[in-house]
Amino acid sequence: MLTLIKGGRVIDPGNLDGIMDILIEDGKIIEIEEQGSGVRGQGSEVRSQKSEVRVVDASGKIVAPGLIDMHVHFRDPGHEYKETIETGSRAAAFGGFTAVCTMPNTNPVNDNTQITEYILKKARLANIVRVYPVAAISPGLKGKGLCEYGDLKKAGAIAVSDDGNPVTDSQLMRRALEYAKGFGLLVISHCENFELVANGVMNEGAVATRMGLSGIPNAAESSMVMRDTGLCELTGARLHIAHVSTVESVNAIRNAKARGVNVTAETAPHYFTLTEDAVKGYNTNAKMNPPLRSSRDREAILEGLHDGTIDVIATDHAPHSSIEKDVEFDLAANGIIGLETSVSLGLRLVENKVITMTDLIAKMSTNPARITGLYSGIKKGSPADITIIDPDVVYEVNADSFQSLSRNTPFDGWKMKGGAVLTMVGGKVVFER
Amino acid sequence: MEFVKKDILDMESLSVDEITLILNVAEQMKEISKRSVKKVPTLRGKTIVLFFHEPSTRTRTSFDIAAKRLSADCFSIAGSTSSLVKGETLIDTARNLEAMNPDIIVMRHSMAGAPHMLAKALKTSIINAGDGMHAHPTQSLLDIMTVIEKKGSIKGLRIAIVGDISHSRVARSNIIGFTKMGADVVLAGPPTMIPKGIEDFGVSVTYSVDDAVCNADVIMMLRIQKERQNGFLFSTEREYSRVYGLTAEKMKSAKKDVLIMHPGPVNRGVEIAPDVADGPYSIIIDQVTNGVAIRMALLYLLAGGARNVDAD
Fold it and tell me: In this complex, which of A205, A282, A326 lies closest to B113 when CB atoms are compared?
């Protein structure tokens, strides 16, 4: 069985950009041909005549290497009523992702090889997208010691992070970076100063003051970004900063990169799309950690995406049920789901000329691949992980139709232009619009 | 003018006309409280639930008396005796209350936005009797009523609010209420107690009580909560009272006929010296009296006692 993806604009950042046909057989890309190149001797059209071929018409669409979301929470094991590895994988496929990296704050925590193996086994059984577990920095995410990074890496962990919690102890963070370096493991840092957050539940500023909610200052994030980039500089380890939300953090990362520090960074679609205004009316679907910030911070995030300071767009997909969200704002759980809206929100950046289509694909596929050591690309002989994006499809977000088990999105009812229309993992179509 | 509001949630959502109407009705209600038989049949057959999920004596009693003077049936449910301690969510408890067909739920809660959540979920009218650090609209209305009684109008008055602005729902509601009615509001307190972005409310801010009090027509002192010391908001009670407490000496630069207010309960000797609290300019007790009148007016307007009230 052959699949021919015909006439799309193929973009593999840094390698390909043009109208091409891609021929796939047994899960691999076996042929890539520029249209009108004239060298079609053994080409797709010839082949398509001699055996059964599924033809996917991609004209007017973007054909990209499979998108990778390097920051999701699948709640499995522990809170399977919010999301399982299977439902999360399906949500990923529907959102255009061929691979995800799952954060370790499950219950029990992914701080040992049994949990890592459990996640990989469940992902294999679901057989939808590729799932790469991130293991914990410290046992139980408690910040008191180091997990067995060597064993965890062997079991399949692709990075370590205490995401959800900061590593408060600076000495432990230093040692974690050094110890991870010995195994070639990436450290993903959740930058948050607990003392400065105190009982804060949204961004500190006029909106919080008006609503009578306790604020979280920007410095709660940026002071830790500065600490961790300093520790990265000290240790020469690989550091990735998760969910960047403030202007000061962007500046600190830009500054560190200029010094030659080996740091990368991600932001989430909600930080470049929304501001603290979305919280008005005590909207718990706009409550997350770090919180939605001011328009000045949002501008800085856009600038960071534009100039490359921010390498990656990752969703921080954080499913919660109505049990955690239909409560007093102070009590509501942090986080929103993002897998099924990410591409459309990313395309707004292209539409608004913040970044190019090629940049978007880099930040959602090739950059996270490079950072985590995964594969992404459209090459002859490589696995056919492909996302087809229609930049013109118009639709309205309907949370009730999500594949995710949860509905906690602030984007329900939003009119979108552009989205993923086909997701292929190893040659198998796992989503088609 | 017709009063068509379903809920009273905060001062932001009340227009100047609505505030004026409430004040006019409260004026009439105040007269009832002066009679020897302090009861009218206006809300006979109406049910009012006092749903207090945070300790309160003053406000709950005030609502209770207000309801009874209008002949409404009034029931109190405290957070600790309700199902909330058994793990029921606030929304579920509220839906159960609503199923018993009350006309108004008066709600006090330690968390901002809780009454707004109920107002969205229920058809029953909700009156916010204080939510976290957010709002305390009935306090603001009674304060406006008290100042107007003494000064004739709020317009152009210089009103100083002094103390822990950050944690005060009374301060927030009064800032909005007083500025809406045309006052110039100045805030004073240590920078640790001035919330970020408060200038957006159209007020001025100073860290000097002397500057705030200078030429003030009204000085409102806020209660300092001793447990705030744990959040490093001030050093000691001793220093706080010396720097930020109101004394007769500090009052000298205020207008001659300055009014002293305090939402209570008062920490005598901390934020306000006893001779000031009890002095001739103090209207702290008038505030309490007007509290009943304001709450009678709101219950009356919301329970449909008057779909058409003449705001003459």
Answer: A282
Nearest to B198 among A209, A211, A330 (CB): A209
Segment A222-249 mean pLDDT:
98
Kindly report the CA angle at A64 between A60 and A65, in degrees rounded to 5?
Answer: 160
Q: Using a pLDDT cut of 90, give the percent of chain A over it.
A: 95
Candidates B104, B75, B95; CA nearest to B9 is B104
- Catalytic residue from among A21, A316, A359, A385: A316
Q: Which residue has the tokens 């040992």?
A: A112
**ipTM for the whole predicted complex goes beyond 0.95:** no
Any residues with CB less than 8 A from the CB of A124 and at least 6 apart, and which?
A: none
**Spatial distance between the Cα atoms of B131 and B143, rounded to a whole number of angstroms:** 18
pTM given for the model: 0.94
Percent of chain A residues topping a pLDDT of 70: 96
Q: Which residues of B touch A281 (CB under 8 A)?
A: 116
Over the stretch A157-168, which tens digit does the pLDDT of each residue have? Answer: 999 999 999 999
Distance CA A211, CA A329 (A): 11
Q: What does the alpha-carbon distance between residue A240 and residue A306 come to, in Å, rounded to a whole number? A: 18
pLDDT at B312: 37
Percent of chain B clearing pLDDT 90 (strictly above) = 86
Helix axes B137-151, B16-34, angle to 10 degrees: 80
- Which H, E and C letters describe A297-357, residue by residue? HHHHHHHHHHHCCCCEECCCECCCCHHHHCCCHHHCCCCCCCCCCHHHHHHHHHHCCCCCH
Task: Give tens-digit pLDDT for A322-367.
Answer: 999 999 999 999 999 999 999 999 999 999 999 999 999 999 999 9
Q: Of A211, A277, A222, A213, give the one whose Cα is nearest residue A248.
A: A222
Q: In the Cβ-directed half-sphere of A426, how many Cα atoms lie within 13 Å? A: 5
Asked whether the beta carbons of residue B116 and residue A209 sit closer than 8 angstroms, the reply is no
SS3 A51: coil
What contacts B233, CB < 8 A, 6 or more positions away?
A: B164, B166, B190, B192, B193
Percent of chain B with pLDDT over 70: 94
Between chains, do A326 and B89 touch, taking CB under 8 Å as contact? yes
Is residue A26 annotated as part of the catalytic site, yes or no? Answer: no
